[in-house]
Amino acid sequence: MENKLRFYNTLTRKIETFIPNEEGKVALYTCGPTVYHFAHIGNLRSYIMEDLLEKTLRWLGYDVKRVMNITDVGHLSSDADTGEDKMLKGAKREHKSVMEIARFYTDAFFSDCGKLNIKTPDVVEPATNCIPEFIHMIRTLLEKGYAYEQGGNIYFDTSRLKEYYVLSNHSEQELLVGVREDVDEDANKRNKSDFVLWFTKSKFDDQELKWESPWGLGYPGWHIECSCISMKHLGEYMDIHCGGVDNIFPHHTNEIAQSESCLGHKWCNYWFHVHHLVDKSKSGELAKMSKSSGDFLTVSLLQKKGYDPVVYRMFCLQSHYRKPLEFSYEVLDNMSAAYEKLVRRVGTLDREGEVDQEKYAVYRSRFEQALCDDLNSAMAITVLYDMLRAEMSDATKYALAEDFDRVLSLNLTTAHAAKSAEKQVDPELERYILARIEERKAAKKEKDFARADAIRAELQEKGIVLEDTREGVKWKKV
Length: 478
Ligand code: AMP
Ligand code: ZN
Prior knowledge:
By secondary structure, this protein is α/β, with parallel strands linked by helices. The chain contains 16 helices and 18 strands. The protein has helices spanning 41-59, 86-94, 98-115, 131-143, 170-179, 224-234, 248-263, 299-304, 309-317, 329-347, 357-372, 377-389, 394-408, 415-423, 427-445, 449-461, and strands at 6-9, 14-17, 25-30, 63-70, 76-78, 82-85, 123-126, 147-150, 153-156, 195-199, 219-220, 238-244, 268-274, 277-279, 287-288, 325-326, 464-469, 472-477. It is elongated, with a radius of gyration of 26 Å. Zinc ion is lined by residues 31, 226, 251.
């Protein structure tokens, strides 16, 4: 490994060099979707950037095992354990059973991930598969004195911890809870920050899925699932835990509390959080795109509007994961035009010939450096553009583009062929057209308009029409 990956660790609030517990191996965990509705493109921003992290680790040669849960029970409409179960809400909305809803939206989620070239994690586990594991952990927490039973529910006792807010800034989080409108204080809690591990009594008693437990018929709280599912598949130590920034508190804060109390040692060293996709669709003000508002953008909607989903991936990669990203169709349109040009450039490279190993190594290293610098994907794309402009053989460029795409996953080498097949244009002819367009550009620059017109006329005779647009010269077959 030539470069070492450095990225921002929410736990230490610093950019740190990544050192795994076991040399060469990475235990990676991602909080999965709550499957009561389609994932919106904000959720998918998080998964795209987590996919980038995973692929960067693999590029660097790590043996990665990535686990993801599917939340199909226990996530209430407020993250702070109040309100109705989101799954039940989804089921009522669609007059279906909770399991039907879960199956449908899990499939929809992975279909969206596929369109965005997000790799499916090595292990995907629905929460409802792991009820015995949840019960076992809750029992341990009760035995160790970290949990209590009150009013029929089991709560985690946050007053037992010296540092409950390790991941989040205490005063900041009190503020957050303070402004949340839907926080409906639970009188059973001994401390405001305590959270539910197991419900047998809820205001919403029509919960469809319930299981027998030592504390009566009930269902698990939301946070317990990620602690149990990760330990089931990754063991007692985890290297990196991922999620969107809204997961920092209370979800990840509670995961740390219960996991470390249960294990009796530190659990996860690095916490990777992706900032939100924001838009102005609701009130004209910039706001986090959210599923519960019901007013959100999906991959299918973008497709219906004619966008290639991979263009949305590129839109995400062009911005840093730790900054809020504002969605706009205008930027997406520009991205579409840039993407089309980019894949045309790569797709028309003449891949036959010698790869210049020295130049190959230089650009490979630059690309890697950008990624290792807190996953600077925008810089990695800049390296791609620089490389395509540089003086070297087409074969070297093609090999580099193919290599970079192991991480970027933008279909760099395949998209153009697919588009050309649709347009039924022979790649040889296309290379010729592009070369003629370049010659015409040069002629115009030299004010040799007669020659420029002759090139246009010659192409027209071959059935190729040129159009001068703001984004450059476009051509089509007629
Ligand atoms: P959920 O399905 O609500 O459990 O969320 C799935 C993932 O999407 C979590 O990691 C969230 O933190 C993340 N997420 C939710 N809203 C956004 C957003 N607007 N932008 C980016 N990530 C988000
Ligand atoms: Zn989680």
